[in-house]
Design brief:
By secondary structure, this protein is α/β, with parallel strands linked by helices. The chain is built from 24 helices and 18 strands. Helix 18 packs antiparallel against helix 24 and helix 20 runs parallel beside helix 23.
Amino acid sequence: MIALVLMQNTGKMLKLNVLVRKAIGIETAGGLNILFSDKTGTITKGKLEVVKFFDGSGSELDTQGTEYSKVIKGKVNIAIGKNTGAMFDSNNKVIGGNATDQALLMFLGKEEFSELHMEITEQQGFNSTNKFSQSYIESEGMTFYKGAPERLLAKAKKYLNTDGKECDINIDAINKAIDKMATDAMRVLAFGYSKKKMVEDNINDDIIILGFVGIRDDVRPEAIEAIKEVQSAGVQVVMITGDRKETAIAIARDAGLLHDNEKALTSDELNTMSDNEVKAIIKDIRVIARALPTDKSRMVRLCQEMNLVVGMTGDGVNDSPALKRADVGFAMGSGTAVAKEAGDIVILDDNFNSIKNAILYGRTIYNNILKFCKFQLSINVGAVLVSAILPFFGIEEPLTVTHLLFVNLCMDSLGSLMLGNEPALEKYMKEKPRQRDESIVKRPMFIQFCFVGVWLLIMSIIWFKAPFISNIFNGNKAQLATGFFAAFIFTSVINGLNVRSEGFDIFNKISDNSNFFKVMGAMLLATVFLCVVGIIPGVGTAIANMFNCTPFGITGWTAVICASVLIIPVDMIRKAIFGTYKNK
């Protein structure tokens, strides 16, 4: 049954970029207490972008506005377009160069890039020693620079303002703006030009600053909301990254991960602490920076020792031990084959939002299993009570062996098909994670199947002992027994509506479960067939005899239907009395 429920939901999850490799992993995902998530490509876009531009006065400029485009834009375009190893391909995608070159070229745009017709007279590419690149354009009579702010500012005295005038640089304002962008996890690059020819490995001493850009691997907009939902579900999210601490903190704050009184630690800081010291602060940790693969494995081990259900993301070969050890290993779709083999679930688009969907469906599967358990146990308890107690009232074998076999057929495999496809509800993400050793059968469920079982017992006693029921079947005991068999199955099937919801909204989102009425209808039709097949001579009579069924009239079927639908108001009374209704 559990396998059927898991199988029905894995197809839905694949459409949400979640590939389930190990079926048990997705159910476990719904019970996560703590999730360690990579940053790049999961919480962030995994792609550098230019997010800010400010001029030599330290003032931020709107790159779509006229102040920027009037004078500065043209020269910045040259400084970018003639100092890059990247280019646009025929599909308007940026190729070549490094990630920074590609980000700057996207900022420039294909149309602007194609309009830079001037020829480069001399050029020197970027290297880590110089920390700048330069290109001399003879037709412009200028050398254009792109590089680290401190390198260009050391030789600059002037900046070009939005009116095209060369003004004195305000170093304090510029440094303040650079520090602010660094705090916001941005890499800052400077642009400038000189009216002299270029000198290899050197910056001319007449540099005029054009401006500065802030480049960042920005947070995915959908990840911000997904993190909020996962946190509201009671799952602690910890970002684990190789970035420096300041960058990691800035990204974590933007993503809504890090708040006041919560901790951001580096790998070195963690490794100076004992296991017990780390365990004491685990609940407050939100960021682990400069992390090593061994840190991931250690954190999984410590959390499991605290009886927490742990999720871990990873994409590299070195991440595989942590992925394998975690209760749920989320391998990234862009990762290595080794990581995918070690993981339980593959996140095809590397997106944190897909991890959130995996948690939601994990909880959905667990709740669907609970619904099936309520459905199945209610009928089993009823069948046991009826078979054990009615003989004391002089009613021998109210349900025959073949009747019980048919009940089990309907309630087991068909019941799982009917309830296993129930939709994922957002309210599941507002529930707290269940404990690792938590029992499936809790007090409300126990009350529910006992209540329904007792009602089936009461209904069966009334059915066989009340004179008005016997009169409906003209005193024919064989028809009365067949009618009871039909009423028992009908009641059991209709009770499937009750277990769909803990409240009174038993038809809520039922259209999202296309199998429900199909399977319910199939079970009811099969029951009707067994009860009426005896009217067909030959094979029909043999089947009827096998199942101890005798055909009866329309008044009998009216009694069956009326008795069956009573299970709905009866269960509503239970919900009202025992307070299991949750208005969500």
